[in-house]
Write a structure and sequence with these properties.
The complex is a heterodimer of chains A (162) and B (498).
Chain A: H1 2-16, E1 17-18, H2 23-28, H3 30-33, E2 37-50, E3 54-61, E4 64-71, E5 86-87, E6 90-98, E7 109-119, E8 122-123, H4 130-157
Parallel strand pairs in A: 1-2, 4-7
Antiparallel strand pairs in A: 2-3, 2-6, 3-4, 5-8, 6-7
Chain B: H1 7-27, H2 29-37, H3 41-64, H4 73-97, H5 104-115, H6 131-146, H7 148-156, H8 159-168, H9 179-207, H10 212-227, H11 245-258, H12 262-269, H13 274-278, H14 280-299, H15 310-326, H16 335-339, H17 343-355, H18 368-386, E1 396-398, E2 402-404, H19 407-433, H20 438-449, H21 465-480, H22 483-497
Antiparallel strand pairs in B: 1-2
Helix pairs in contact in B: 1-3, 1-4, 1-7, 2-3, 2-6, 3-4, 4-5, 4-8, 4-22, 5-6, 5-21, 6-7, 6-10, 7-9, 9-10, 9-11, 10-11, 11-15, 14-15, 14-17, 14-18, 15-17, 17-20, 18-19, 19-20, 19-21
The chains are: A alpha+beta (162), B mainly alpha (498).
Chain lengths: 162, 498
């Protein structure tokens, strides 16, 4: 009997806590995960958006982003937010998923319970392919020369035209 | 006898296209400036290549057609249609070079979506896009919302020429006596609101703790795409990214201003505030917003309990409705959430998108003016039947002045409305053939053709190329209200036949 109770409790726990979900799975099946504790991993991107008693940060996972609501005490853990020349911190968030959050006027979000920084982000050196630079340089010379010549020819052939 | 297309048409069209492409090249100095101050030199190179391409193309056109001639109506229409198509192709170049698009067609889709102020996107990894490319996406919305031609009108065209291409860009209200002063007024209004609106949005974001430069950048981008009812945003989550009802309220004010006729803006600017109360088109817009929202509400009647409270219900449903009706396409929910709405609620949004905003505004769609005209026409016919046969029944409406409706007006409105409906249905049918649901297909098709930009999930880099091409055509035809494109197609057919 004891074993049955333990198994039942474990099943309930598993049913209530859904580990290791992708953001895409949450967003596409919101009813399945609504109100449940989930764990998501991804890159923090964009900006920190301050709220009443916490702040928002957006987590990007396989092309889909979701808002994570965190207490201010967690702010110090965030060092980098992803953008053009920055790879954001890669984090693991454990939190409660809301299809329509009561606290935040119906937003789809995750209220973080804990955040772990798996790998810190960094500022990237902008890598411009050499071929692109050569192409742009050549095009610039040829293009500007052609524009100049055509402009002179156009002027000569139609002196009255502005 | 009506003169047929001749070589002269090609020369005149080439000449003015050349001039417009000089303007398009100059316009790309803005992203270069942003790229330099953001130290995004890779992006600067992309725009350098694109500027050279535009100027080289313009030089070739001007070399082969240097003479300046008067434009006739037909040439004006061809210039407009070709400008929009070629601007799409050339403006897609820096987008494609950014590496955020899987193919050139996707970049073209995005640039047409921006110019036509639609807002459907195929960009990938938007959250890591450079500021320069992002500002270009939004600046294209700003240019397209006013009209690409309108940019060039101020600098390159004379009075009679100006009117002929002004009309081609789906604008039939001359607010001021001539088209060039009207164009200047439209730009003055737009730039004034650009400053005020961007600052308002930036202030809200500053309250949310964003650094000053980021708040200004976001404010500027969201204003340009909101005022021009385009619906682009600098982050992949669109308006949901900001998690801020107060930010959404500011965007609603901006999009309502964008969906209002420039004629009404002019009246208000010149102190005639009562125009806001009396303008027939504004009244119809308010009614159709109310009517379509009622349909959406009825659609949700069995599902209201799914929402945590009345405010979140209103925030979610009204935002999508107003966004769809004005043609902006901003969204504070995921497209997968929209796809799960009740069918009647989706129909309410489709109807709102199909109707669109005001004439001579930055909105797309059939336009509330035409809907109002049908209502007035119906009223006139009922009165005509009710009164004695000998009586002459007239029906008036107030649209900056008292206007009496006539049969030509009704006929023109009817032709354009039928074209829109056929375009809406065509996209839905094609999507159905490709395996999507008809209602979903209709939603996306109306969104593209009415230049809205809300998505129910079909628009995606992996969707079939044929659907991308058809949506590009829908955005192009819908924005220019068909006639310029019909004339261009006829012109091309004639050339091929020869």
């Amino acid at each position: 009997m004891k074993i049955k109770i333990i198994i039942f409790a474990l099943l309930l726990l598993v049913g209530y806590t859904c580990y290791g979900q992708t953001v895409s799975a949450l967003v596409n099946n919101p009813d399945l995960f609504d109100g449940k504790t989930v764990i998501v991993k991804g890159e923090l991107v964009g900006d920190i958006i301050e709220g009443k008693d916490g702040f928002w940060v957006n987590l990007l996972d396989s092309g889909v982003a979701i808002g994570i609501y965190l207490p201010y005490s967690e702010k110090g853990k965030i060092k980098f937010l992803g953008k053009y020349d920055v790879t954001g911190d890669f984090v693991k968030i454990k939190g409660v998923f809301h299809k329509r959050c009561i606290e935040h006027a119906g937003d789809t979000d995750i209220h973080s319970v804990s955040m772990e920084v798996i790998s810190q982000g960094m500022k990237k050196e902008e890598e411009i392919p050499v071929e692109k630079i050569i192409f742009a340089f050549s095009l610039g010379i040829v293009g500007l020369a052609a524009i100049g010549i055509l402009h002179i020819l156009t002027r000569r052939e139609a002196p009255g035209d502005d | 006898m009506i003169p047929d297309f001749s070589k002269d048409d090609i020369f005149v069209v080439s000449h003015y296209l050349g001039k417009i492409f000089i303007a398009l090249g100059i316009a790309q100095l803005l992203p270069i400036f942003v790229g330099v101050i953001s130290r995004e030199f890779g992006a600067v190179i992309d725009f350098f290549i694109s500027i050279i391409a535009c100027l080289a193309f313009a030089s070739i056109l001007l070399y082969f057609s240097p003479g300046k001639q008067e434009i006739n109506w037909r040439q004006g229409m061809i210039i407009v249609a070709l400008t929009w198509f070629l601007a799409m192709c050339f403006s897609a170049l820096p987008l494609y070079l950014s590496g955020h698009y899987s193919c050139y067609l996707d970049a073209c889709f995005e640039s047409m979506s921006a110019y036509a102020t639609t807002g459907l996107v195929l960009v990938q990894d938007l959250d890591h896009m450079s500021n320069a490319h992002n500002i270009w996406r939004h600046f294209m919305c700003f240019i397209g919302g006013q009209g690409i031609i309108l940019v060039a009108l101020v600098f390159f065209f004379r009075g009679s020429d100006a009117l002929r291409i002004y009309i081609g860009e789906a604008r039939d209200d001359k607010i001021l006596p001539n088209s060039i002063t009207t164009a200047k007024f439209i730009w003055m209004v737009s730039f004034t609101y650009l400053i005020i609106g961007s600052l308002m949005l930036a202030i809200v974001l500053l309250f949310h703790g964003l650094p000053f430069s980021r708040a200004i950048f976001h404010g500027l981008c969201i204003f340009m795409a909101g005022w021009d009812t385009a619906g682009f945003a600098p982050q992949s989550q669109n308006i949901l990214y900001y998690h801020s009802p107060s930010f959404e309220i500011v965007t609603i004010i901006i999009i309502l201003l964008g969906a209002t006729s420039f004629g009404v803006h002019y009246a208000v600017w010149t102190g005639k505030f009562r125009e806001l109360r009396e303008d027939f088109e504004i009244k119809i817009l308010m009614f159709t917003i109310f009517f379509t929202y009622m349909i959406t509400l009825i659609g949700f009647s069995g599902n209201i309990a799914d929402f945590p409270d009345v405010f979140s219900f209103f925030r979610t449903t009204f935002y999508q409705l107003i966004s769809g009706h004005t043609g902006v396409g901003y969204s504070n929910i995921y497209s997968s959430a929209l796809a799960n709405w009740p069918e009647l609620a989706i129909f309410g949004i489709i109807l709102a998108m199909g109707i669109g905003g005001c004439m001579n505004s930055t909105s797309g769609g059939i336009k509330v003016f035409r809907i109002g005209l049908f209502y007035k026409s119906m009223k006139r016919e009922i009165r005509r039947l009710a009164y004695p046969e000998s009586s002459y029944v007239k029906e008036f409406f107030h649209h900056q002045r008292e206007i009496s409706i006539d049969d030509t007006m009704i006929k023109n409105a009817m032709v354009i409305t039928v074209c829109y409906i056929l375009l809406y249905i065509s996209g839905a049918v094609i999507a159905s053939f490709l395996g999507y649901g008809f209602l979903q297909g209709l939603f996306e098709s109306v969104s593209a053709a009415a230049n809205v930009g809300l998505s129910i999930g079909i628009t995606d880099p992996s969707m079939p190329a044929i659907l991308k091409i058809w949506y590009i055509f829908e955005m192009w035809a819908g924005r220019l209200e068909f006639f310029a494109i019909f004339i261009l197609l006829r012109f091309l057919v004639k050339i091929v036949k020869r």
